[in-house]
Each structure stands twice: as C-alpha cells, then as structure tokens.
User: Fold these one by one.
Assistant:
Number 1:
Amino acid sequence: MYKINLQLQSDSPKTLTEQLYQYLKEELIKGTFTRHEKLPSKRRLAENLQCSINTVQAAYNQLVDEGYLQTREKSGYYVADLSGILVLEPEEYKKKVEAEKSPPYRYTFSHQGVDHEQFPFSLWRSLSNQIISTQDAELLSVSDPKGLLALRSSITHYLQSSRGVRCNANQIIISSGTEFLMQLLIQLLDAKAVYAIENPGYEKLNQLFKSNRVQYVSLPLDDQGVEIKALYASGADVLSITPSHQFPTGRIMPVTRRLQLLQWASEKFGRYILEDDYDSEFRYAGKPIPSLQGLDGQGKVIYLGAFSKSLSPALRISYMVLPDVLMERYETYLSFYYCPVPLIEQKVLHAFLEKGHFERHLNRMRHLYRQKRELLVSCINSLLPYVEITGDSAGLHLLLNVHNGMDEKELEQRAADYQVKIYGITRYYSQPPEEPREATLLLGFATLNLEEIPKAVTLLKEAWT
Amino acid sequence: MYKINLQLQSDSPKTLTEQLYQYLKEELIKGTFTRHEKLPSKRRLAENLQCSINTVQAAYNQLVDEGYLQTREKSGYYVADLSGILVLEPEEYKKKVEAEKSPPYRYTFSHQGVDHEQFPFSLWRSLSNQIISTQDAELLSVSDPKGLLALRSSITHYLQSSRGVRCNANQIIISSGTEFLMQLLIQLLDAKAVYAIENPGYEKLNQLFKSNRVQYVSLPLDDQGVEIKALYASGADVLSITPSHQFPTGRIMPVTRRLQLLQWASEKFGRYILEDDYDSEFRYAGKPIPSLQGLDGQGKVIYLGAFSKSLSPALRISYMVLPDVLMERYETYLSFYYCPVPLIEQKVLHAFLEKGHFERHLNRMRHLYRQKRELLVSCINSLLPYVEITGDSAGLHLLLNVHNGMDEKELEQRAADYQVKIYGITRYYSQPPEEPREATLLLGFATLNLEEIPKAVTLLKEAWT
C-alpha cells in the first residue's frame, strides 16, 4: 500500500482539507496508486497526519465527486478507474492543466478570434429553441449532401448583395472550415494540378497540400499581390489567393492585378483561381471592391467564404461557390460526402440570416471593430513612434513595421516577457523570402476589448524600450 | 409581354386565387418571364380571367411574400431577381420540388435513419439552452483540433465500458462522419498503402478511395467475414471491416476470424485494420462480442464509431481511436485540421453523455428496436413463407433471401410498384460476385414505426405474389 507522505501546514493560506485534496489528486494523476487500490481509512489517515477525521472525509468526498475515488459500502475508499481521466502522460497532463489555468499571456493580439462580448448568445439560443422544438423528423435524417437548400439560398442572397458574387444556390457547397473545402477541391480538380500559394500566406495551406500529397509552389508578392511573372514561370494550374485583404500582409489587390490574374486563368484549360474571402465583411477605408468572382465571366474562380470572422470560428461553417462545370463534376463524383455541418446548426444559421439578424450583427460588429482599430492605431501612433502601420484598411488585423533596431524575434520575445502575444510575420512564409525584410509583426484586434487595447500597447512600449 | 394563358376552374377543389397563384409560380419557376418584367395590372388580369380584382391581388401578394414578385410604388408588380430562388434548371427544380412534395414511397426500409418519434428533443433543447446561456467565451474560440477534451473523455468511458475498447481520451479524434475520418486516415497512413474493403460492403468506401486517388481492392466474404486467403493474396496494407455487424450482410465475425486478422496485421510493419463499429449499440441475441480493438495488443487496430445510429445521423458526430504511434504522427502532421464539429454541439453531447442521458436513451432505443425487429421478423415469417431472414441478431437492418423465383431486380421493382422501398444487395458490391447469388434484399427497420411495419410487409406480400 502506498504511504502518504505529506506534512500539513497550519500556516498555509490553504485549508488542511485543500492541502490534502491537492496532494492526493496530484498523486492520483501521477499514477502513484495502483488501480482499485484501497486508500487508508479516514481514521488512520487522520491519525497519521494529525488532523481531524472531518478534514480527511472532506478531501475524500471531493475526490469522489470528481471521479478520482470510489466508495464501497462498509469498506472504504478506492482508487477509481482513471483511464478516462488520465488522458495524457501524467507530466504532460500536469503541464496542460497548468497551461489552461494560467495562460502565459495577458493580452493576445490574435488574428483568429472574434469579439467575445457582442455575440448574440440569447438570440442564438432562442433560435435554437425554436428549431429544436419543432420535433422535426428532418432533424434526424441525412439531408442534402451539399448543405440545406434554404441556407444555401440565404448565403446566395448575401453574397450577391454584399460581395458581388454571381451565383445561385445550386453552386454552393457548405462545409466546416477552409481545410475541408480544400480537401474537396483537391479531389475535384486534376490529380496532377500544381497549386500556387501566396508567400507569405495562410500557414495551413502548405501543410494541407503536403499532407494531401499534391504539388505546390510558393509565389512572392509585390505591392499588388502575387507577382505575375513568377506566376507564369511557376507552372501552376490552381492559384490560391486572398485578394480582398491579403493574409497576412493586409494588402488589397487592385482591379488591374485582378484582371491580370483572370487573364492568366483564361489562357489554359484546367487553370483556376481560389479566392479566399476570409474577412471581407470588414472594410474601413476606400470603396469596397467586389469579389474577384464577380469579375470573372469564364467560370475560372472558385469563391470560398466562412462565418468564422463574421460570427464565430467555433461554429465551423464555411462554403464555396463552384463554377457550373465544376459543380457538375462535383455532383457526379463527390456528392457521396455528406455535409459535415449538423442540421440543427444549419437551420439556426438560416433563420439568423433570413430574419435579418446577420445584417444587424455585421453592422454592429463593423462599428465595434472600426472603433477597436482606430483606438489601436492611435495608441500605436502615440506610444510607438518608431512603428509604421500597414494593412489596416480592412479585416481584423494589421501589421507593424518596427524601426527601433530590434529584429522580429527580439520584438516577439520582449513582448512575451511582458505577457503580450504578437505574431512575427516569418511564420507565414512557406519559403524564406529572398531579400532581408524589416521586422514585421501581425496584430489581430478582434478579441481584445476597448479597455485592453491601450494597456496592451503600453506594455509593448515598455517591452520595446 | 407574356400572355397569361389560364382558364380558371370554378368547380376545382382549389380556390381561384390558389389556381392563379399556382399557375404564375410555375411559370415564374420555368423562367417564362424575363427578369424584371412587369406583370399585367390587377384590373386587366381580372378582366382577362373573368375573376375579381381581389382574387388577382391575393395571388400577387402571396408571390410577393415568397419573393417571386416585387412591387414598385404606383407602378405595379414586377418579376423579382430570381437567381437565388431558381436554384436549379427549371425542369430539374420542378422535379426536385415534386419529389420533395410527394415521396414516391409510402414505406421506406431505410438502413440510414433512426426512429423519428423517440428522439429526446426537449432534453436536447434544454441542454442547448444551458450551454448557450453560459455566454461562454470559449464558444467563440477555436478549440482543441482533436475535439473537446471533456467530450473525448466521455466517449472514452463509454467505449471502455460498453465496447471493451482500450483507450484514453488522448487517442480520440472527433470528426463529422466516417468519410471525414477516412480522409484523415488516408493522409496519415502511407501514401502507397493498398486498402482492402469488404465485398459487399459500405458503398461509399470505394468512391472515397477512388476520389482520394489511393489503391484499393475488394475482398470476398465467407460466413465469418473477409476470406483470409484472399486477404493474403491481395497485397493489402490496410483492411477496412465491420466485424460487429457486417454491412450489409449482417454477419457477426467470430473470435477465431478476428484473431486471424490480427495475426495478419501483426506480420508486417504498416499493416492496419480499420474497425468500423457503426451500429454495435444494438444487439439482440447471443453474448456481446467486444470490439476487435479490445483484442489487439499491438496497436494495429483503428477503431471508428459514430453517433449516427445511436442518436441521429443529422448530428454528424463520429470519432476514431488511434493507436499511440499513429496519434503521435497525427499530432505532428495533421493537427492543423480543426475539429469540424461546432463547439456548442460538442458541449451539448458531452452534457448528454455525462448526465447519463445517453445510457438511458440507448436503453430505450434498444427496447424499441428490439420490438420493431421482432415485429418485422414475425410479419415476414407469417406473410412471406418463401423468405429466409439473415443478419438480424444485431443492428438496425436485416436481410431477406427470397425464394419465389423472382430475381432481385424484379423484387425491388414490384415492391416499388406498391410504394415500398427496399434495397437489393447488388448495389453494395464494388466488384460483381463470382458465383450467382440468390435474390437478397436489405431491410432497415429503424425509421418505420410499429404500426407501419405490418402494413409495409403486407404490401410486400401483395407485390411479390
């Protein structure tokens, strides 16, 4: 039997029960006890530790409640079957639990999340309520593999009116996340197609092409987007771009370059452009430029969108608009894939769109994000005079070019020392750039609130001085 | 301008308004009107049709409400922009609408759905309510790419206690549907791996392997499952099977064959068995056989499960248990894929499992499906004496071998003539079988209720006499 090796501290800020509970829990997680081992009786342990039986009982009961111990009638306390609780190697588990408890960063300039305070929870709840209460047999059946027709129709209306996308509901496929859409596209397009990605660009694309075992090339960017010369020289068939707000540089592709790219696509059978319009809902300056897809008269553009930025990434709803020819091929070869989005959620989102809530939510969020962006820009301008801001006329992140003699790594590390997380642009390069770059950092501003932004920038100032 | 060519029938069961509305809607869907075309004024149309202005106005208003027409002030009614409504070619759309309106079958012996009457809608709603009302910032963030840890932990407990699967939560990946899990596995396993599937088997697997451009072979079955000789001869590396209730034959693989397969897997590096345990929750006769994964001591089995049969296919929640070595590889190369299941749904399902609702639901459904199965078996035995039932000791479907001189196609067609949908086994063969088979049909019994089953079998009797 395991000997309990603990000295209770009466002068600790923790109660004796808490100390004993914490100690036993850690030992249980470490795997010190054998499976189903009996623990010392309350009386004996109380004697050993020189505490009251009540202290032991309270600690044991807490562990029973949490599933670490089991009681057997008239017999005592036993180690529970912990295989489901001990999800990781004990050391790893401990690290994970600690990491979850105290995130190392006070402020994270994440480019992935959305504002946490304005999500219409109660509306979402009430729509869910209505949808689930219909006792709808449809909610129990496999539905349209491309996604609920009504939702595809609502998305069509949105895309037509807000993004100038030319499509009908039949061209839309609903899925969960860009990665899943890309997997479908890889299966849909030619097996030998060579894909081209922006460098720097969305960091998952090269991982995705690698793991799907297709060929890809990284293309350098100039001020307007992917370099045309490099594109022609690359032998690429399918070009993946983010023209509305290039990720990560934040540049907006001008119409001239868009037309050049469409021209490139039109010159050869099998060439396509994947337009990832990931955060086009938010634009703060200049006239809105409609989607590239809307300029395309030849069915060469595949448009990808998502509700990750406009609602929440945790909803996992994305979609793509296929040219008719590709949709025909999709229906012939790939319609055995069921739409991965649960039907309840598709119906809730459909109601949210149809009843005008989405438009209202977008307007509110546009206003809020504009405020956040302006506050962030003004804090940076007043506190960090050696910094130049770029890529801030759209979307939920901007870039800093920092001219204070520090390199990207040092800037990142110093910010981390002050518990501020920022993202050096290097991580978004699938190929290291040819020329040396100035230190550039990506700052997302959606998740921080208006009170946090000045505090976070103040910390950056301290960190970088 | 389009001439309205309609004769209103005063002796029709439909009102004049309904007749006019229906007629105009069909013409609009057919695309007879040009975009933005102006419709005749109410007065003129009323004169032409010899009806009251009110009749025309009511029909027009209905079409405005449904988005087919638009009004312009002081000008009249115009054809709306129908690109979002006209989701298909007019003819196709009409077919689709009609197919949805009046399904050609009165009774469908589907093997895909679940019972429609016993789903715990109100419980699901109240759990959703609780989850969404927490205003949980986590609901707005991207979470663990493998799925919510708490849910993986609950699934672990279930698999350990009910299916004898040996695993911890760290080995589990949550996704949406077997096809998505298979796509991940294809990327995880060797690019040159040859996959083997059961013949007959789940009809999507060969489509999936084809579209993912990997090599696969079809293996014949004997009474125990895939033929061992054929397996060795095939050169396969990865074998996909349904040992608990072979799909579609319904056979349960005995332990001897299981051990032979594990032996095969152990003989070569890179060999794996994919155990698809798609409907093992429901077993009606004999002792439960634990999962193949539970027999495996060498990390050769990848276990796949889902909530499609036990809860609903529309939830789109499935999972797999990876051996440690593969999980390490997964975390290194594939953890950039986010879990496609929305976080709200993961949390609702977690609460459903943790609070014991799932166990209770399963018990209720086991009882109900047992009743349905017994009723179906007894109806068949009394009404169809020339039929032999197989594959009925587990799962949600059984097979009929029909000895009345008709072949499979004829049996299917005659049933269809009586508006009963059954599934000939031929469609599940990826390779046509070498020997001629007796006529075999698959009947799923989950979606029909206890009143419908005798009626459906009576129709089969009439159809086949």
Number 2:
Amino acid sequence: MVSMNYYSLVLVVVALVWALAAVAGDPDILGDFIVPAPMVGMPPTNITSDFFTYTDFLAAKEYMPWPPQYFIVIKANMEVFPALNGQSVSYDMLVFPSRYVNPPHTHQRAAELLFVQSGALSVGFVDTAGKLYTQVLVAGDIFVFPKGLVHYQYNQGPNPATAFSAFGSAAPGTVNVPASVFGTGIDDAVLAKSFKTDFWTVQKLKAALTPPPK
Amino acid sequence: MVSMNYYSLVLVVVALVWALAAVAGDPDILGDFIVPAPMVGMPPTNITSDFFTYTDFLAAKEYMPWPPQYFIVIKANMEVFPALNGQSVSYDMLVFPSRYVNPPHTHQRAAELLFVQSGALSVGFVDTAGKLYTQVLVAGDIFVFPKGLVHYQYNQGPNPATAFSAFGSAAPGTVNVPASVFGTGIDDAVLAKSFKTDFWTVQKLKAALTPPPK
Amino acid sequence: MVSMNYYSLVLVVVALVWALAAVAGDPDILGDFIVPAPMVGMPPTNITSDFFTYTDFLAAKEYMPWPPQYFIVIKANMEVFPALNGQSVSYDMLVFPSRYVNPPHTHQRAAELLFVQSGALSVGFVDTAGKLYTQVLVAGDIFVFPKGLVHYQYNQGPNPATAFSAFGSAAPGTVNVPASVFGTGIDDAVLAKSFKTDFWTVQKLKAALTPPPK
Amino acid sequence: MVSMNYYSLVLVVVALVWALAAVAGDPDILGDFIVPAPMVGMPPTNITSDFFTYTDFLAAKEYMPWPPQYFIVIKANMEVFPALNGQSVSYDMLVFPSRYVNPPHTHQRAAELLFVQSGALSVGFVDTAGKLYTQVLVAGDIFVFPKGLVHYQYNQGPNPATAFSAFGSAAPGTVNVPASVFGTGIDDAVLAKSFKTDFWTVQKLKAALTPPPK
Amino acid sequence: MVSMNYYSLVLVVVALVWALAAVAGDPDILGDFIVPAPMVGMPPTNITSDFFTYTDFLAAKEYMPWPPQYFIVIKANMEVFPALNGQSVSYDMLVFPSRYVNPPHTHQRAAELLFVQSGALSVGFVDTAGKLYTQVLVAGDIFVFPKGLVHYQYNQGPNPATAFSAFGSAAPGTVNVPASVFGTGIDDAVLAKSFKTDFWTVQKLKAALTPPPK
Amino acid sequence: MVSMNYYSLVLVVVALVWALAAVAGDPDILGDFIVPAPMVGMPPTNITSDFFTYTDFLAAKEYMPWPPQYFIVIKANMEVFPALNGQSVSYDMLVFPSRYVNPPHTHQRAAELLFVQSGALSVGFVDTAGKLYTQVLVAGDIFVFPKGLVHYQYNQGPNPATAFSAFGSAAPGTVNVPASVFGTGIDDAVLAKSFKTDFWTVQKLKAALTPPPK
C-alpha cells in the first residue's frame, strides 16, 4: 500500500515536473548538469564526484582477454553514464581483433571523431553523392566520419587495434546497415528489387544476418 | 579599375569565406526569408511572388507518361526552390509504377511524413533496436518515418501509386543504402565480413548496383 | 484506492522521469521516437506500426459532404498524431468551398509549404517591410509562406479547392488575426487608436468576430 | 591585375554565396563575437570597446522634446548595433505620450520582456486559444509577452510613459497587425470575408492605414 | 494515505507526462507558454495575467535604503519568475554604491546587454585571445558583454549607479570567478601553480574569499 | 577584364558578407560536410580523404621530448582541422609533466569529456552553487566537466600523464582564468575589491601572470 501522505506525493510530483520543465525551455539544459531523478519519499540524491566519473573502459581493459577474440564496442554514453545527459558529448572504445570489421553503419545524431590508439585501421565513408573516401590510419591518427553518412572500420593487419571515438551527442545512435536491412524481416521482394538481385541471394543474406530467435 | 593583385583577391575572398563559415547567428534565420545573392555590379534582385512559387510538380504531372515507366522522385527542396532556404521544410513527389520499390534509405536531417495520394503502398522502417514496423497504406493515409532510420516504400499492387512526402528541413539529405554500400567500391573483404557472406555474392551485388562509368 | 506497491510507484515515477530527461538534453530528441507515457502499473505500451499511421484525412474525405459547405482544416499535428512529437514535421488538409477564405493568420513556429491538390487558390503574405506578395495557384502548384508572417488563402473560383500544407514543426501554432484582435475583448480605445478608426467601427467588427458565449 | 572575365567573377562570387547560404556550423556562433566584414584590400578592422557600446538611447533622450509628441520606438538590435550579431539579445526603448498606443503586433523570433521605467501602461496579449490577458503596469513592473503572440501596450494616463523591452534575439522582428492587414493592398473581398464585414468598412480601414505614396 | 482513485492517478501522471513531452521535441517550446505543474487531484491552475507580471524590482526600489549600502543584484529569471520558462529572456537589476564592484564573472548561457539607468560604470571584458576591452558608461549607455567571457562592472564615482541587464536566456547562469577559484577549497598547490604565486598568497586570498561556515 | 570600380567591388562584397552574417538556415549544416572555399578562378578544390584525416597528434608524439618538460595542449579543432566545421566535435591531447597543472579555466561552448591515457590526474570543477567536485583519475578513467564551469587538472604524481579530451563543439573555446583576470591589465582597484585583497597582492599576481611585451 502507498503509505505516504497525500500532500507529500503532490509535492514530489510537482518538484519532479518543475525540475524537468527547466530542462526543456532553451535548446540546451538550463542548469549546470541534470541530476538523476530523486527517489520518491527519500532524501534528495547526494551527487558526488563519482557521478561524473566513468570506469568501465578501465574495467574492460583489465578483464579483456588479449589478443581479443571478438570485435568489441564499449560505450560511454548517457545510457550508461548519466552525467552526460545534457552535455552533448560521449565516447566509444573499439577493440578490433586482426581481420575484424565494424560493419557499415550510420549515427543519426552525431559525427564520429575516431582516434587510433594502437594498431592500424582501414576506414571509409560514402557521401550522399555516392563518393567513397578511404584511408589507412595508424596509431595516433584521427579521422572524422561526417554526421549521418554510411561508414566502416576494418583491421586488415595481423595485430589487434584499439580506437576511441568521440561524438558530439550524449546519445549518437547507431543504425547497423547489414542487420537493419537483412536481419529484420523486410519482405524478400523489397530486398530483391532494392539490391537488384534474386530471391535466393536475399534469402542467403537473411539467413546469415538474422539473429537467432531467443 | 580593380588594381589589386590576383592573389590578394584570392586571399581576401578566402578569408571572408572562412570567417563566414564559422558564423551562425541565432539558430534560425534572422530575417523574413533569405534573398538569393544579388548579382555583382547589377541592381539588387527584384524578389516577386514567383520566388515563393514552385511549379515543377505541375510540369512533371503534365509531361509524365501514364502509367509511369520508372520510379520517379521530384524534389521541392532548397536546391531547386531557393525560397525554402531557412524555412526548414520541403516536399518530395513520389511516383511508383506497379511493383516498383523505393529502396531502403535514410534521411540524415529530417523525419519523413508521407501522404499517399493515389494507389497503395507497403512501407516499413527499422528502429535502432532492430524492430521492423510495416504498414499497408491506401490513398489518404499518412505515415511518419522517424528521423535517421532505414525505411522503404513498395507498390505491391497492379496500379501506379503517387505520394507526397513532407520533411522538416529544407535539405533533408538522402543516403541510398544499396547504392552506398554496394555501388561505391568498398573493399570486397569489408563487405563479405560485414554481410557474413562470400566474395562471389559481394561481387554479384556490386555488379548489379555499381553505376556504369560515364 | 491506490493498491500498487510503494516500490512499484517509485520505479514507475523514476522510469517516467528518466524517459523524459532523455528527451531534453540535446536540442533534438535523443531516441528514435517519443513513446507515449506508459500506463502506471500496466505493462509497457506496445508500440506498433499503427502508432506511426494517421487515417483522419482519409476518414474526413469519405464522410465530408461534397461540395463542401464550410472552410475546413483537418490537422495532422502532434496533438492528434502523437508519433510526430520530436519529428519536427506536420500536415494540414484544407478544404475551401467556392468563395471561402482562410483569414489572415500567422504560425509562430514554422513556415507553411502549401500544395494545391485541386481547384485554384489566390494566396498572399506580407513581409515585415509591409510588402504584399500575391499569387494565383492552380492544382499542382506549391507556395511557401515564410515563418511568422501574416498570410491568407482565398478560393475565388466557382469550384471547391483542396490543399495540403506541410510545416517544419510538429506543433506550428496558429494566430488567427481577426479573431485575436476583434474577438477577444481588447479595449475599444486600444483598437480604435490602433486601426485609426472610430468606436462604432470597432464595435461593429467586434460584434461580427466575437464568438457567442457558450 | 585581375585578369579574369567579369562574368566569371560574378559566377564565382554567386557560387560562394550560395555555398555559404547553406552553412550554419554549430547552432551558436563559434567565436567570441562576430567581426564586421573587413574592408577588401584594407587592413583588418580594429575592433575597440566602442564596437560593444551603443549610445543612441542616450542621444534620443537628450534631443527628444518633452513631453513627447509621438509614440517612439528606438531600437538597439543587430541592424543598428552590429556587436549584437550572434549574441541573441536586444533592446527597444519605448516612449508613449499620454493616450498613445503601440498597436497589436507580433515578434516572430522572440518573447518580449517589458520593464516600465516611468508612467503607467495598460498591456495585453492573446494566446492561441483566444484568451486575452490584460494588466495595468506601473513604473518598476515587468511583464512578459510570450513569443509570437499578438500583444499591445497603451498609455491610458495623463503623463508620458517610458519602457524598455528586452528580447532573446538580436533580430526579434515585428509584424504590425493593422498595417500588415489593412495597409498593404490585400484584396477587399479577402478582408471583408475575413473580418465578416462589408466592403465599405474595409475601404474605410484601408484608407486610414495605407501609408501615403512616396 | 493516498485516497485518490487509481485511474485518476493514472490520468494525472499521463497528463503531466504529455504536457512535458510536448515541451522537448523541437528546440523551442511547442506551446504559447509553459504552465506550472497543475496540482495533483485539484482543478487545473487558473493562469491569469499576474503569472506574466513580476513586481520584485518595484518592491526592491521601494524598500531599499538610499544611498545603497551594498552591491545588490535582483534577478528576474525563470527561477523567481516562472513565466519566463521557455521564453529565452531575463533581466537583472544591479545597484552599485559608490566604489563598489561586481567582481569578474561569466554567464554560461547568455550574452549580457547592460543598460545604465543612473550614475556611471566602468566596465570591461576579456576575449579568449586575452585582449581587455574597457569602457566608461554614463546613464543611457548600453554595452554588450559577449557570451561566456570574463567581465566586470565598477562604480568608480561618488554617486550610486543603477543598471539593468538583459540576457538571451531565462537562466543565464553565473560563475563568480574569485569565489569559484578561491572560495571553494581547491588545493593550495593547484592554485599556487596556476597563479604562479606562493602558498602564503593563496592562503591569504582563500581566507578573504571563503564563505564562513554556516 | 574587371571594369567595375574598386569601391563598388568593396561595397558589393561587404554587402554580401553582411547579408550572410545574418544567415543560419537550419541549426545544423545542410550538406554532408563544409568544403573549404574553392580558389577564385581555379578548378574546385579536390576534396580527398586526407581532408578528413588529422596527423598532428601522431607528429607531436614522435617529436616530443620524453619525459615532457612543459604542460602541452595539442588541439584537433576546426581551426587546425577544417573538416570538423559543422560536425560539432573536437579533441585536445594533453601532456602533463610531473607536478604540472592545467590552470582553472572554462570552455564557453562545450562540456569536456576527459580520458586519462597514461599516468594519473587530480581533477576538479566548481558548480554555480560554489560546490567543488574533486577526483583522482588513473589511466583508463573518464571524467566529464559540465559545460561552462571552472575546472582544472593536476598531475600530482612523479610520472608524466597524458589525456585526451573530447568536446561537443568543433570550437569549444577556452577562457584561462588566471591569465584573463591577472594578465590583461584589469584595473588594480577592480581586482583588489573583487578578490578582497590589497594592491600589493594584486600587483604581485599581475607581475607573475602578465605576458612579457613582444
């Protein structure tokens, strides 16, 4: 049973609404940072410097087998690091085993600024005029993938590669092209016509890219 | 007479352009509308109501063979209709012959609000969690494709279909997925690994989707 | 009586607050789309493709007497079509009987991009320098009314006219000039001085434009 | 010597201007302030603190007859005070003789925050639901007119009134309702139907509000 | 005990969430103004014109001893004047006794447009290139402090000075430099190295600027 | 030959630049990326993938003496890496010798997301309520400094430290607090009053922080 007083509930809801209303007026946030929702009926959250610190990259590095066995993306975005909410910035840490690829994808809400920390990466993006830009990056290089365009990274070499990507949004979003197109059940006729191919090829691609039922 | 050196002029113009490239003022335009560049040394352009009128949809309808033979998109965006610059809105007119598809694509800068004027369309989009939303639309229906997500339209029926799409940007941008991925020369290894398929399939798709050299 | 558990309520409110907080950080939404508020204590709303579909234009066409008897505006904005929230686009369908006018008005939050579907319309807008731009549009024509300026449409001809207007906002807003000025009780002296006229004329206009008490 | 053809230069400049018209960078300016265009072929403008200072309010006060004879608006916006470009703020100084009105108008790009410095003002605005909000303000009072809504100020009393209005845009824009509607040549039939009145009344209002030919 | 009906609570929360969701989609608010949170289970707040009126400047003037004894800032921002929420504008009233200073500070979210109402002020700001701009302002002068830069105002003269500052944000924010740097407990070594001075000077400044424990 | 008068050309270019200075279009760029100004009279710049690649971090690492002798910041922002223009993201590489500090500063246009690559850093920021948040970061840790607030980093340990900072703007801007306040010639009286100290202390700080004349 809800045992809190009626007026307390009113006050709590009003306080929440005011807090939120203040977040939306001007395009950016209207305070220093966005405090996570205080617990109803409990004392206000005590925000400390730990709220602004994120340690999962460190943890990942310590517990990751080396050389890595799979392509791994560790995200530091507002979903896992709430202090980023309203600050318009986030990171990804990318770990590529030899010969692994980060498949063609887009980010809807941000450009990607990739810094290669170790190893080497072959990267590319396609502009809306259909021109492909490719580059071979070595450790220390930076490359920018413009906002919303299809791009990929590929570790062609024999050694692992690690990279950091910065985004100008706390929630850049990712649309994985192979999975979106061939892994979601889009009608075979649509795909065959779109890719100017036959049903057999479409079904082969779908079989490879459709995630198994859980 | 202009007596300045050629290279000085180049430097001055480049400096001006760079200075401006960093300029945005308020987020929106700071006047009623954006006047196209007046001609150098000529009297200022005389803006009339024709500047705000666009007649290519009408022209297209009158001269288009019926039933249509190809999938056609006629755009009313700021590239062809300069008055839209700064007004954050544009239209596409879409004409689908029977059995034709508008292949999976994204718009980087706007959601698409599609109105079916005649015929019927099977449409779909995929959200970033990999869920496919499909719908069969008839004349009079409206459907919204959220910003940045992969979507398609398909005229499954025996008759032509026409539709209008509104966008919340004067330059929504389009990334055609099959053409971007298989029609731009991305390395076969990247594509084979990304689509979890063999080189033969990649080459077959590239052959179908790569535009012929001009 | 509220029979839900205290901790369930806490979780529900926290979830709501987090969902909303994520909507406001960056200028645009930070997800694919905005899900309507899940019901308290019930399973999360099951979003289907119907959520992205709007059928009131179709319904209106089927049940509207023809020829139409009144000037009719059917809106497809976020108030009636919640999926538009955060997508920055909306539609109006306008139906004009012969000799009917859509009175001078402004939209505070968007330009209007009008497409004439059938019939003909005389349209106009006034820029902030006091210059009137008028145009006669026929079926197939497009016209843009710049953001925030006073504009009108008028069906001068003997036949009905239908048009669609796209807006670069999910909630463009409308300020109807005659109703705002003469139908809201503004003091007679203010209006007489503003319109440089006499009290009798003001009172006559107010009588015509003030809505009857409900 | 510049040896390029005149028409080539025209084309180059036009191309640059069109390219730039589409350029916005980040939503706000990307520097401390926007420097006015340096003169071609001259040394860069020497920006001093005078660039950030505006003295026309002071000048107006010194040379204005008192009591004032007309309603006067002195603007401190980016057109007359270029340092405001990109700073999203501006002022108006308003001087009302006794019994004078600032007629119903809207600002497309900003709310207005009015501070009454001396005298008293009757003010009002109408929301989009058609509700009128009126207030009598005395010296020292502040009132906010929300963005884009029709509003007016009226000095009902026997003494002059002065006020300052702040706007959250360097170029808020003004649409004067009586002048826009009755002073620009909109067709009599459109106005008669819109205001539900007769041609005679329309012509009388037009005669009063149409500026004399220059 | 919460005695409201389960379905009422659902409706109230859903209404609140919808109200808020509408605030965040487009960069600006999507309504005329933001209504403060209606009380849960009570009739909707009756918004009157008093909601848009702010009288604390008037009250301050009436009750302030004259000449003033301290530097005083009275704010009219959205924290104390909720109608400003979403309207992107606010005011400060500044009262300077003779020889008083408003110490170096920044506003994170807005430029400041200062109008000197009475007396005179010496003002200055520093751009990011380290150039100081100073000006002596007299009553009637306006000065703009660009967004985010360090600035101060100083009343050098024998008489009090009053000024009004407009901001292009309803919540401009203030970072007081002396208090932030020397009044918050930053490590002595950090401060000594940053200011290229000795521990004794740092401790002296900290002693002067650290607020006493409450 | 260009036969127009020199002053006419100046006027035309100035007019164009002023017209453009007010132009912002949609809040973001309206193309894939911003191409640097093509040379006047030359073929359009041939944009290659090198335009999107930045190698100064790599170069810096190779040529920097180790251990480092000074605190070094290498920037990858739009000033030195033009492809970032319009992409709303940038990087800084920070190299700290043992016992070196990055003095208290603010960024006007972005939050800072710091990743410690090697060594350890003591960091802190002060919110607008005057609360100091401090943290000791080790290699692999991430910390966010909210937008516009005063912050510092300090390498307390015996070894060098390197870090990368991502910003959600291509031009975040930096206001160095000690240099802005004590190194720019602000009047001694203003500083003495602001820091509640004596002229001798102000002059000592100014002597230490004022850059030598060039």
